[in-house]
Specification:
Shape: elongated
Distance between the termini: 60 Å
Radius of gyration: 25 Å
Oligomer: single chain
Number of helices: 15
Number of strands: 2
Structural class: mainly alpha
Order of helices and strands: HHHHHHHHHHHHHHEEH
Strand order of the largest sheet: 1-2
Number of domains: 1
Strand content: under 5%
Largest sheet: 2 strands, antiparallel
């Protein structure tokens, strides 16, 4: 049955992906991007010299954002009596602090993160079943689309902000406020281009890293959901597959079903472990994201009140705020999807043709159904549920705060 289908799958996958585990391949773009940005260690298989050079690069990637934050803090102190100018700096400052929190999490918990990635390469998440591969292939394609769409958002925003907004303002003879302390006048023609490129580089790095980490966690959550869908499929067809295995392997149906059901139990345990590891590694930065998102949005709204709605600056600020909102929405939406899919496991077990099972397997099935009644629910910082209800509550709180 699998012979005619396997070549078709092979033709739809890139050669490099065929050599990798599909459950892990969906994260390759994110991992490559994080390593380019200097926020993720190289793969343990990298050469010693390459690994050491990259570690030096990672330290530089930590130093530069701290330098930018220091310039912002000095500038805020200097303009502390001007509320408008303070607000011009606050949303960037809060975003940088949020990013550094994520960056330090990737460094402090690198061993746990590497163990999580190794689990995704394991046999339980990459079973040699064509039906599984179809589902994983859909996940692989989806992950690439999400990566490129989310990565394009901060880049587009920063291009509008720096080149389409600040450059025409400077050429028109107007002063540009960069929101950072500099020992010279940034509007001087001799320094303006250099300062604009410096700010563009810092903010683009910030936006790309923020969005990339968020999509990385999102793809991990979706991988849990994908594995649950695979498990549901296995449970619904467990009896039929056990019958086929019994006939092909020359064993009794009782032995065949025991193997099939035991494999599903192990698969479920690994899914639970994966979801707990995701929460343990990223729970704190996600919780911090919830805290600072409201502040960032409020400062952006305060900033754009007096901006011309038809200007490029206004559009770029709206795009900036959209990036922040999307980051929060990703955590909430895919956390909800994971919970919703896990709630279907009880029905999937019941839809099995359990009338054909011996009594002892029926008892095991009932115990399993009782166990999976509790859905997988992720909590940011063990406090805030990652659900659409939380997202809606945050949105309503912002509306109330802004007096809309």
């Amino acid at each position: 049955m699998t012979t005619p289908t396997t070549p078709t799958l092979a033709k739809t996958l890139p050669p490099a992906t065929m050599e990798e585990k599909l459950a892990f391949s969906g994260l390759k773009l994110n991992l490559r991007c994080m390593r380019i940005l200097g926020t993720m260690f190289l793969d343990p298989g990298a050469g010693l010299l390459q690994y050491r050079i990259h570690r030096v690069y990672m330290r530089l990637a930590i130093l530069l954002p701290f330098l930018f934050i220091g310039q912002q803090l000095i500038n805020i102190y200097q303009v502390r009596d001007d509320a408008d100018m303070v607000m011009d700096c606050m949303f960037n400052l809060l975003t940088f602090v949020n990013n550094i929190n994520k960056q330090m999490t990737l460094i402090w918990k690198k061993d746990q993160l590497q163990a999580l990635l190794d689990d995704l390469k394991g046999p339980l998440f990459n079973q040699e079943d064509v039906r599984h591969k179809r589902i994983l292939l859909d996940f692989y394609r989806w992950s690439r689309v999400v990566f490129w769409v989310c990565l394009s958002m901060p880049i587009t925003t920063m291009v509008m902000w720096s080149f389409l907004s600040r450059l025409p303002t400077h050429r028109g003879g107007n002063a540009v406020e960069f929101g950072i302390w500099l020992p010279f006048d940034p509007n001087d023609d001799a320094y303006f281009t250099l300062v604009m490129l410096y700010e563009f580089t810092q903010l683009t790095w910030l936006g790309c890293n923020n969005c990339n980490v968020d999509t990385f966690v999102t793809i991990l959550l979706q991988q849990c959901t994908t594995q649950i869908r695979i498990l549901r499929l296995d449970l619904e067809t467990a009896v039929e597959r056990a019958q086929e295995n019994a006939e092909s392997e020359g064993i009794t149906f009782d032995e065949a079903f025991h193997k099939v059901f035991t494999l599903s139990l192990r698969h479920y345990n690994e899914i639970i472990r994966l979801s707990k590891n995701i929460g343990h590694i990223f729970g704190r930065p996600i919780f911090f994201q919830f805290l600072v998102t409201a502040w960032i949005i409020c400062t952006i709204v305060y900033r754009i009140v007096d901006v011309n709605p038809t200007s490029v600056l206004f559009i770029s600020m709206i795009a900036y705020m959209s990036c922040i909102v999307v980051e929060l929405f990703l955590y909430c939406y895919f956390g909800t999807i994971l919970t919703y899919e896990s709630m279907k496991l009880t029905n999937a077990a019941y839809y099995m043709d359990w009338l054909r099972l011996p009594t002892r397997h029926r008892r095991a099935l009932v115990i399993f159904m009782e166990r999976v009644k509790s859905p997988i629910e992720l909590l940011a910082g063990n406090i805030v549920p990652q659900s659409t209800n939380t997202f809606v509550s945050v949105c309503f709180s912002l509306i109330s705060f802004l007096g809309c």
